[in-house]
Amino acid sequence: MRRPDARRAVFLGLFVVAVGAFAAIVWRTGYNQALDQLARRGQADLTLAADRLTGQLQLYQQLAVLIADHPSLDGDDTAAKRAFLLQSADKTAALDVVLVDEEGRVEVSATGSAPANLAGTEYFRRALHGALGEAHGTNSATGQRAYYFAAPRFDDRGQVIGALVVVANIEKVEAEWRGARPVVFFTDRSGEVFITNRSELLYWRRAPEGVGLIPPRGPAPRFETATTGPHEIWHENWSPYVPQVALHLSRELPRIGMRAEALIDVSAAQRIAWLQAAVVAAVCLAFGAILFVVTERRRTLALANTKLEGRVAERTAELSKANAALRREVAERSAAEAALKKAQDDLVQAGKLSALGQMSAGISHELNQPLMAIQQYAENGALFLERGKSGPAAQNLSRIGSMARRMARIIRNLRAFARQESEPVSRVDLVKVVDSALELSEARLRSDAVHVDWDRPCAPVWVTGGEVRLCQVVVNLIGNAVDAMAAHDVRRLDIGIRRDGARVELEVRDTGPGIEEPEKMFDPFYSTKIVGDSEGMGLGLSISYGLVQSFGGVIRGRNHPGGGAVMIVELVAADADAAPSSEVA
Prior knowledge:
By secondary structure, this protein is of the alpha+beta class. Among the domains are: 106 residues, PAS domain (Beta-Lactamase); 150 residues, 2-Layer Sandwich (Heat Shock Protein 90). It is built from twelve helices and 20 strands. The strands form five sheets. It has a six-stranded antiparallel β-sheet. It has a five-stranded antiparallel β-sheet with strand order 2-1-5-4-3, sandwiched between helices. A hairpin with a 6-residue loop joins strand 8 and strand 9. About 4% of the residues have low confidence. This is C4-dicarboxylate transport sensor protein DctB. Member of the two-component regulatory system DctB/DctD involved in the transport of C4-dicarboxylates. DctB functions as a membrane-associated protein kinase that phosphorylates DctD in response to environmental signals.
């Protein structure tokens, strides 16, 4: 008996090793896929940060070019020149604006902090050749980081007679995105970190090996690098606000002579990979356990049959008794299999009921305002009929029919959302969508005494999306804002649309208490409303988040410095000649 037991032990050991190896392969594959997705999102964030920096610096560059030949800088009135330069610096938040002659001597400084002579600077020498000079460094007078733009000044014959230098305050430039995620820093040609959204990394330098960073003084913290597929992973312990294990991304910015780099936290990718590996290992072990039990059962039955066949001649009575016992065991096994099948069917039914419960919760939340509108139109229609006004009554009945058709479309869109399906998107007029949402919410806005400030554009604003689903998102944002302002005396709702290149932003601001937990606001079933309230199931923002993502957009929220919450829906701008949406709100 020891030899079969040893074989089974070896087989089980090999099976466990095989499952472990397979789980490791699944972990590696899942981790690489998660890193690929993380890298794509990180590259987009890095591009956005780089574009934001270059765009902000370009404002100071344009300022230098525009005022270099301004008439106010001609003549001998130094006080007038200084006043003009100081006015320009104050309006743009520049550190200084300096007028320099062709010898490099400073004629006028807006703040008086410029050195007496700039002849030795690289950006001034480039301006003397008729080109725009650029450089960065630390301002010797204020100790602040600065970026310099030197625009040449020409006389009537086209000869360079000096330069106008605009000194940009880097701290002002990076103030808007300091502390944001991910970690982003910009290194110059010498490898020094000159701009970053993590102040603790400022002035760190590229390590002698060319990878990683070291502080300007003191011992270098722990740092290691590894390669996973095409990705570079950094292991470090630089700061509590810098991820210890991060995906390193970089992008050259020759326009400003710097290199943009980002560190993306990979903990989420590791969690996904571990979860996938654990699920695969659990399934394989469960399958192996079932196979082992079945094999052991069959082996036991085979041994019993062999023993019964050897004793059939001598012990017929015992064999009959054993056969009877075997039949009872088979019956019990059949009953157990039937019970197992019933339990599996019950589990499937429970899963269906759970899905129906979630769908019902979503439908009840999204259909509440159309139902309120139908009730209002029905009551108004009845009053008009009592007064003999058939015309307005017919209009109310027509609106009730329109609301019923809209409810059917909402149910269809919610069902498609639950199944992760989406209808084709096309061109939609965002102004018309907001008008429709305000019309649907008009009764509630009036009953709650909410003042709406709708900065309505004169022309259509075309975006990519679905008209009905986008209207659902706007109605939900309006409803949430009205709920938030219920306990406040001042109830004002500000709605505006602005376009920035290929993106269009819809902003909805209320005067409520603000967002208590911004990081949880899009989680399903998260709500700050009273438990048991029919409007407080916490699915509205979660569903809206999925709908906006299906259009290729994003939705985000923040607290306004003046009080209240601001919800921003960012959508992709559509061409004016694109096909309009077939959906009707």
